[in-house]
Design goal:
Blueprint lengths: L1 H15 L12 H6 L11 H9 L3 E7 L4 H16 L4 E7 L4 H6 L7 E5 L10
Parallel strand pairs: 1-2
Antiparallel strand pairs: 1-3
């Protein structure tokens, strides 16, 4: 549990860094106002996760639920990480209530849950 938190905080720090210029600068108020609005993704299914993982690259699956408060807080940060690393990392948001079999198979015990996949959809490389 504690090592998982350390891994994900290190992952977020690494992903937020811009490859060319080091750590990402905090955007000014003007920059934030000029950004286009982030659209809500369509509801993903376990089949979407499998096809994305088989497609190659890193796939970060955010297992969430409409009733989960911490999940809503994390969503905005995850979207910004995805936007910063478009092409390298694909983020898929999976609703727990609609995909209970997938969550059971992946042994999701608490929300929010992040699963990082590369290559095989059977086992995440990091939870």
């Amino acid at each position: 549990p504690e090592s998982s938190l350390c891994f994900f905080s290190a992952l977020f720090r690494r992903l937020r860094q811009k490859p060319e210029s080091g750590p990402a600068a905090v955007p000014s108020r003007v920059d934030r106002q000029q950004r286009p609005a982030v659209t809500q993704p369509k509801a993903a299914s376990a089949a979407d996760v499998v096809s994305a993982v088989r497609g190659g690259g890193l796939v970060l699956v955010d297992v969430t639920a409409a009733w989960c408060g911490p999940c809503k807080v994390m969503e905005k940060e995850l979207r910004s990480v995805e936007a910063a690393h478009r092409g390298k990392l694909q983020l898929i948001t999976l609703d727990l209530d609609r995909n209970q079999a997938f969550a059971k198979f992946m042994k999701v015990r608490a929300l929010p849950a992040l699963l990082l996949f590369k290559g095989s959809p059977k086992e995440p490389i990091q939870r």
